[in-house]
Amino acid sequence: MRNLLIMLEHGLFSVYLFSIGIYGLITSRSMVRALMCLELILNSVNINLINFPIYLIVDN
């Protein structure tokens, strides 16, 4: 049960990072800021890529 809560926290953190990145990418006027927001989006995708295979391990 504890592992599922930890995975949920990581998933919510990833969604939070992704939404901040999308918002910043849409509203930024500076290219540097847009690249930083794109990096946030990529970091959230990497967290998801690490987080989701754990669901497969827990179910089996």
UniProtKB/TrEMBL annotation:
Localization recorded for this chain is:
Membrane
User: Keyword annotations for this protein?
Assistant: Chloroplast, Membrane, Plastid, Transmembrane, Transmembrane helix
Main subcellular localization, coarse class?
membrane
- What membrane topology term does the record carry? Multi-pass membrane protein
Q: Which spans are transmembrane here?
A: 6-26, 38-58
Identify the Pfam families for this entry.
Answer: Oxidored_q2
Please give the name of this protein.
NADH-plastoquinone oxidoreductase subunit 4L
Name its species: Epidendrum avicula
Gene name linked to the record? ndhE
